[in-house]
Every structure is written in C-alpha cells, then in structure tokens.
Amino acid sequence: MTLAARAITLEIGGRVLVEGLDLSVSPGAVTVVVGPNGAGKSTLLRALCGLLPLEHGQVTLRGTPLSSVAPRARARAIAYLPQQTPAAPGLTVRDAVLLGRLPHRSRLAGPSADDHARVGTSLERVGMAAFTERRLDSLSGGERQRVMLARMLATEADVMVLDEPTAALDVRHALDLLETLRALAREGRAVVLALHDLPLADAFADQVVCLDARGTTRVGPPCKVLSPDTVQAVFGAPFDRDDDGVLRLQLPDGAAVTSG
Amino acid sequence: MTRAGLLLLACLAAGCPRPAAEPPAAARIASVTIDSDATLWALGEDVRGQVVAVSALVDDARYSPIVDTWPASIPRVSGSSETLIALRPTVAFVAEWSDPNGRALLERSDIDVVVLSGFGGFDDYRARVRTIAERAGAPERGRALVAEFDEALDQVTSSAGAGLSVVSYASGNVAAADTTFADEAAAAGLTNLPSTKGMKGHVQVGIEQLVAWAPDVLVVPCEDDCAKTERDFATKPGIAATPAAQHDRIIAIEPALLFATGPRMLDVTAALVRRLREADP
Amino acid sequence: MTRWAAIVSATLLVALWISLVAGPGDVSHGDVASVLLGREVTALQRALVWDLRLPRSLLAVCVGASLGLAGALTQGLFRNPLAEPGVLGVSAGAAMAGAVGLAIGLDAAGPWAIPGAACLGAIGVLLVLMAWARTDARTSTLILCGVALASVCGAVTTLVLSVGIERWEVGMKVVRWLMGSFDGRTWPHLAIGASALALGAALAAWVRQDLDALQLGSDTAVSLGVDLRHTWRVGITTVGLLAGLCTALTGVIGFVGLVVPHIARAFVGTGHARLLPASALLGGTLLLLVDVATRTIAFIALPPGVITSLLGTPVFLVVLARMRTEIT
Fold this sequence. Notes:
The complex is a heterotrimer of chains A (260), B (281) and C (328). Chain A is of the alpha/beta class and 260 residues long. Chain A has helices at residues 41-49, 71-77, 93-98, 113-125, 141-155, 171-186, 198-204, 222-225, 228-235; strands at residues 3-12, 15-25, 30-34, 56-61, 64-65, 78-81, 159-163, 190-194, 207-211, 217-220, 239-241, 247-250, 256-257.
C-alpha cells in the first residue's frame, strides 16, 4: 500500500466534491478516477499528490502523512502530470525530461551523468529517443504527452498521477499511452489517472474511483463500480455490458459504442 | 532637464529689452519676475508708486535680492493670469518662459505685456534696466541706474585672475559664453574655459571633460556650507587632480549670488577677486 | 555556448579597453597600460583613467549585468517573455520611492537611505504584481497591471516634481535622481553595484532550478518539489534588490532586462543555469557599449536610459508582434 487516503473530504467554494473517501493505491495496479465534469477528479488527484492542503482526513505515503513529508522527498515518490502543461517556448525535450530529475539533485548541483543516462532510458521507454534535441513546442500533442511521461519516468517515482492524459489525443495515441501506463504499473508502480472515457477506464483500470458531483464516491473493481445502473445514475448516459462484459454506450437507435 | 532647471533659476530673477512704445503716464505696473521687482524698486519712489503687483518669490531669500523690501500692501502674484487681470494693470513685465496662454490672455485684456528675455550678461542687464525704466516712464532713472552699475563694475574689475582659467560647474552644467558668469569671470581677469571651446549658454558637461580641461579655478554653488562644499569638491575623484583642487582654488559661492542677474553679479566678481588674492597673495 | 560566451567576453574586454582610452584629455593606449600597471603617469591621466573611467565602465558592466539578470529572473518567475522590471513598473516604483524619499528629506539619514527606499519601492510593485499573477497569469493582464502600476508611480513622481517646483533644490535633486547618469560615478558607487550584483547572482543561483521547473507550470513545479512561496520570496527580493539599486545608482534604464534574456535564450537555451549568467554577461556588455557610445559619440552626456529605450522599444515591439497570437 504505497499511497492511501483516509476519510478525506474535498470542498471547493463551499461545495463538497468528495466526502469521507477512503482509498488505497497499490504497486502494480492502475487506479482510474472517473466522474462527470466538475465532479472533482482534478482536485482529488491534486490532493493525492499533496498539492492541495487537506482540511479533513489525510493522505499517507507509505504510512507517513503526506503533509509531513519534505517536498523533495514527496516529489521523488510521486510524479504528477497536470491536465495541461504550458507551452514553455524554447524548452528542449532533453531539458524537459531532465526536470524530472530535479528532486534528486541538490539546489546548486548541475545534472550528473547519471541524470543524463536516465533521461536517455526514459525517452527510449516512451519511444521518443529520436526527439531528444527537438523543441517541445515543435511536437504534436501525442508526442508532447509521451515526453511528459518520460519526464515522470525520469523521476523514478513509485506513484504516478496523471490528470486526463488522453484528453487531447486521438484513439490510437490514447490507447498507446494507456498500454504504456499499464505496463509501467505491472513493473511495480502505482498508477493513478483521471479519464473521461468510460469504456477505456473500464478496460484499463484495476480499480475505479467514481465521483458523482454530489460528494458520494464509489471505489472498487470496474465491473462492480461501473455497472450500467451506477453509470446511468452518475453520468445520466445509457450504458450496458455485452456478453463478454465489455462496457458499451447505448445509442437511442439501438447501436452500441464500446470506446471512443 | 538640469539645464531647464538652471534656466528656471536664472529666470526667477530677470528681464530683457524690447523697443519701447510711448511711455504711458502713471501706469499701473505688474511685475511677475524677481528681476523686474528689483529693478522697479531701484528706479525710485515715483516708479514704486505705480506698481500694483510684484512676483510671488520676491520675499524668498533663495532667489530674491530684495527680501521684505516691497511693502506688504503690494499683492504678490504667481503665474495665475486671473489674479493679475483683476488688479487691472496697464503694463505687465513677464519673462520669456512665462506660460504663453497666460501671456495671450493678458494681451487680450489690453494689458501692455513686456516680455523680458536675455539673461546672458552685463549688457543684457543694462538693456533690461533701460526697457523697464522706459516702460515705467522714468528713462532718466534707468540711465542713472546703468551708470551706477558701470561705476561699481569699474571698482571691482581686477586683473587678479590674469593667466588663470576658470570653469563654473553647477548640477552637471558649465557656464559658457553669453552667461552672467562669463562676464563676471572676465571682470575678475579670468579666462572662462568653456567660452574658449566655442560653447554658449549653460552646457551639460561630464566630470571627465571637466577634469580633462584641468581648470586653474573651479567655481561651484554652495550646498549647505560653502567651506564644506569646497572641501568635498577638492577631494572628489578626478577633480582632486585638477590644478584648481591642488592650489586651493575651488571657490564655492552662494547659489543666489552665483545665479544673480542684477547688480549682485558684481558681488560674484568681487568674491572671485578676493579669493584669488587670498590663495595667491 | 562556450564559443558564444568567448565572443561576448572578448567584446566586453575590447569595449572596456576602448572606454579607458577614449574620451577627453590626453590619454594614449600606453598611458592606460601605465596606469593599470601602476607605472608613472601624470596626476591628470591617472585621475581620468583610474578615478573616473575605470570605475564608471565597471559600474556600467555591473548595472547592465544586474538588469540582464533581473530581466531573466522576472521572465522566469512570471513565466512571461515580456516581463521585465522596466515594463512591469518595478523600476518606476523604485524611482518613485527614491523621489518621495528625496522630497521628504530621507537622504539626510545616510547614503543608503535612498537606495534602500528604491529597493522597497521595487519590491512593493512586485508584491502587487505577484498577487495579481496568482489569480490571472495571462500576459496581457500582467502587462496591463504593470502599466497601471507604472502610471500610478509616475503620477506620484510627477506630484513630487510639481511640489519641487516650489522648492527648487528639492526639484533639482529629484530631477537628477530620475534622469540618472554614469557621470561622476566612481569607486564607492561601483562597490554598491558590485555587491548588489554578487548578492543578486547568489540568490538567483539559489532559485534557478525552481525557475527551470516553473517552465512547465506551477502545478508541475510544485509536484517536482519546488516550494513556490520560497521561490517567489527569494525571486522577488532579488529582482527588487537589483532593480532598486540599479535605479538608485544610474536612474531608470529600461529594456536591457527585456531584450538581453531574449538574445541570450537564442544562444544558450532556456535552462537557467546557463541563461542567468549569459543574460548577466550580455547585459553588462550591452550597457558598457551604450555608455562608451554616449561618452565618445554624443555631444552631451545623454542619460543611459534614453539610449536603451530608443534601442529597446523596437525590439519590444517585435517580440510583442511575434507572440501576438499567444496574448489574449
């Protein structure tokens, strides 16, 4: 149990997004957070990373409350990718990935040979080694996301938290990214990500956290949490499961969509 | 802007000639420059009686040579044309830098506006005195005043500074040709260095240039304490290497005196002569 | 990078030598060498080279370097390519605080009173900007906020000046303060400028990794272990110190802080480990060249800020035009 939330309540502007959530994130597993727009997916992820001060409940990292972990130690343990990364004009792929090594360096030290080596292996892992000297702002959305993933890998964190990493990607790139994330989880990392595509969430999650915009949370395996009834209640959209248990969107004319 | 400031100071005490129309009998005179305030006072009882307003700074010791001289019953006016017009003057002495809109307003109000300009030296002073006297209906008093000035000039004129070069340096500017200082220095027998370089008026000059000229005499305005100003200047980096600093010929003069435009210009000459004699008996 | 740095350093040294030889007075190359080597020269030559030109030129280098550094820091802190102490009204804040200080006679309190006031003025403006940038980080909002602050500071300065017309000596002091100049600046001024630069460089080095991380946004930076409040505090203090003391020493010098980091970035990239020293080196060289030009070409001693603004405004507009699409 790498990262655990105990009885956390999250509010924004007096509106309760999450109430009394208990959640454990374990190595090897992919946890997917789903919920309608504004349900608090991003807020929950930020809280799990320690980016948000908590008023109720606490998040622990290997048993230690996150609020008492030093920022750099926390950064070495949890890597985070926000929903949007600013343009960063002029920043090269190499320098962007090197930033992932910052938590491992003292303030005044420059990057070591080891840092550079890890940048190389991280970029290779996501298939972006050929782009090392390119500028980040010259890449496509999918390429940028892979570089950002390499940046997280370079940190060598046990927990990786990603906020809708597939939001700007087409299906092929989204699938590639999710495959990579699942592989990374299987290597022993805990992966937490927010997704808005329910069939994809259903297909890739080992554990689903479903937020309903009214403070209620459901946590469990996808087949239990993402039942057609729950999805109808939370999202207001008709889904069903086919004979193989695959989650499908039911269109009014009877057609079914499994992923999009 | 420093130069503008210096000009402003020079201007707070000044006036200049213009071809005179027929002198009106028993005019109502408004004076808005310290220079004309002083000259009108010096022109005597008859002229004083015609004055209905003097400038606001006439009692300010920093600029005015005639503090508390004009009776308090004479209104002090600043730039506001409205107050001035309310006093119904027939003649107004204004300066060349006075607000042109205000001046136009005075002219439209049928006031004879006399613009005083030229504050460059002894000749300008003589011309201003004549203009003011004529407009005040006392030309002969003007001639007498000029004669008094010339007599005093004869008395202070000296060759004490013969063979020595001088620079007057204030706020980054030197006084070159066509300045009161050029005439004051000449009367003390000094050679005004900036004039010999072909410069005119108050010119901004770097300390480096000043040091490179290597003046024998350096004149500066006093800050708080004249003796301290002289000591401070003598030890300033660069200045310390000039002949002026090495032969104790840095002369600090009260700003009100150094920038005077009236008869007190001669006091500057006298001060220079006195100091040169002390330094080199 | 190395080659680029070598070229700029060589330019700096050549400009420094020219600044020692050129100018009024009878000073040859040999005389300059003699002064520097401590050989026999006339008192006047020594005064010109050692007392006036050398400290003045080194001060120009220090102030230029400080402004380049302050510009790169500000752009990094605000993640905004148009941020710069001059553009954001920080220098105006320093100038205003100094002018107010002079008007109320603060200069009598000691030689550090007015430079100190200038630093506080700069920091005050930065704090307002920071509060603003937290809620709305768009370029246009930030620049507008800077413009508003600059005009408020300008209005207060004008008020001080208009009061100064009544009190001539105060007015002159304020005017001289606002215009600034390298003229008559010598070793004591250099000591202030060099210490400001050294302290500023040390503080900048302390937060440079944070600035690197901030390129990816504040959320990512925090997730990478950056303590944003600490970074802001150190960064704002550094920029305030550099901009305030530079203004105190030589008046408002605009655009060096804007233009220099842009040029430097084109050569050394965006990493602050190289960008900060490169901006300092380039800023120092640029301002020294400007000062050499004003000393040797111009007939009158132009305030350095006039030249940099004349050169800098077109560059500012080009940058603005290039990023027009990004600004909303």
